[in-house]
Write a structure and sequence with these properties.
0% strand, 286 residues, mainly alpha
Length: 286
C-alpha cells in the first residue's frame, strides 16, 4: 500500500500547490491530453516489449498494489514449514516428502502456512527445491540448480521493470507531443476571441504538465517500487534455498534454521528468541 500512499501524496501536493497559487482545478481537466499521452505511452510499451514482459508488468503491478508477500510473517511461516519438513526427513528420510509434495498446497502440512500455500510462485519454488533435494542432489549441485532458477526470476523481473522504466522515460516526450498538437489546434483558432485562444494554449501546456507528472510522479515511482519488491522476493527465495541446501548437505534442522536466520535482512530477521519460540511451537505439534 505504500506506493499508493506515495502517489496520492505526490498528486495531492501538486494540486494543492496549484490551488494555493490561484489556479482552478477545471483548468487541468482535458481528456484529450490524457488520451494522447496515455495512449501513446501504452502503445510504445507494447511495441517495445514482448507479450511475456507485458504480462509480467501487469502481474508485477498487481502484486505491488496488493503489498507483496515478503514481510516478516512470510519469513516466519517459511521457517516453520521448512523446520517441520526437515524434522520429517530426519525421522523418516527425504522420501517421506513425496506424499506431502504430491498434494501440493492441499497438503495438511502446507495448509498450516497460508502465506506459502496460497502464493503460487513461492509454492512452486519451495516444492521444486525440496524435490531437487529429495532426488539426491548434494549441497553444491542443488545450490547451483536453485541459483539458476533465482537468476531466471531476477532476469525476467528486471525486463518487466525496464519496460516500465522506458515508459516513464518516454512520458515527458509524449507530453511535448500533446502540447505541440495543442498549439496546432490553437493556430487554427488564432483569429478567434482572446479567451478561446487562452483556453487552447492552457490545454496545450497541460499536456506537458501531465507528461512530466505521470513520468516522475506515477510510472517512474511504480517502476522503482516494483524493482524493490523483486529484490525482496529474490531475497526470500535465496533464504529458502540456503535452508534446503544446508539440510541436504547434512545440517541438523535447528542448526540450519539458525544459520539461515543470520542471513536475513534486519526487517524480516527473527531474533534468536523468536526462532526458539517458533521451533518449539512446531515441536509441540507432534
Amino acid at each position: 500500500m505504500l506506493p499508493i500512499v506515495g502517489i496520492i501524496v505526490v498528486i495531492a501536493s501538486v494540486l494543492t500547490g496549484f490551488s494555493m497559487a490561484g489556479g482552478h482545478m477545471h483548468a487541468l481537466i482535458h481528456p484529450s491530453e490524457i488520451v494522447t499521452i496515455g495512449g501513446a505511452a501504452l502503445g510504445a510499451m507494447i511495441c517495445s516489449s514482448p507479450p511475456k514482459v507485458l504480462k509480467d508488468v501487469a502481474k508485477g503491478l498487481i502484486t505491488l498494489l496488493k503489498g507483496g508477500n515478503v514481510g516478516k510473517q512470510t519469513y516466519i511461516q517459511a521457517f516453520k514449514l521448512l523446520y517441520e519438513l526437515f524434522r520429517v526427513a530426519r525421522r523418516d528420510g527425504m522420501l517421506a516428502w513425496e506424499s506431502i509434495l504430491s498434494e501440493g498446497h492441499n497438503s495438511p502440512v502446507f495448509q498450516k502456512y497460508p502465506k506459502i500455500a496460497h502464493d503460487h510462485h513461492l509454492m512452486e519454488f519451495v516444492t521444486g527445491a525440496l524435490q531437487g533435494a529429495m532426488e539426491g542432489n548434494d549441497g553444491p549441485s542443488l545450490q547451483a540448480l536453485l541459483d539458476t532458477e533465482i537468476h531466471v526470476f531476477e532476469s525476467e523481473h528486471h525486463d518487466a521493470v525496464a519496460a516500465l522504466t522506458r515508459t516513464a522515460d518516454g512520458l515527458p516526450g509524449f507530453g511535448i507531443v500533446a502540447a505541440v498538437l495543442g498549439i496546432v489546434v490553437t493556430m487554427g483558432a488564432i483569429g478567434g476571441p482572446v479567451e478561446e485562444i487562452g483556453h487552447k494554449v492552457g490545454a496545450a501546456l497541460v499536456g506537458t504538465f501531465l507528461g512530466i507528472l505521470m513520468s516522475y510522479g506515477l510510472v517512474g515511482p511504480l517502476a522503482g517500487a516494483m524493482d524493490g519488491l523483486g529484490h525482496e522476493e529474490a531475497a526470500l527465495q535465496k533464504t529458502i534455498a540456503a535452508a534446503i541446501v544446508g539440510f541436504a548437505g547434512g545440517g541438523s534442522p535447528r542448526a540450519v534454521m539458525d544459520n539461515v536466520r543470520r542471513g536475513c535482512g534486519s526487517g524480516v530477521r527473527p531474533s534468536s528468541k523468536e526462532l526458539d519460540e517458533m521451533l518449539k511451537e512446531v515441536d509441540a505439534q507432534k
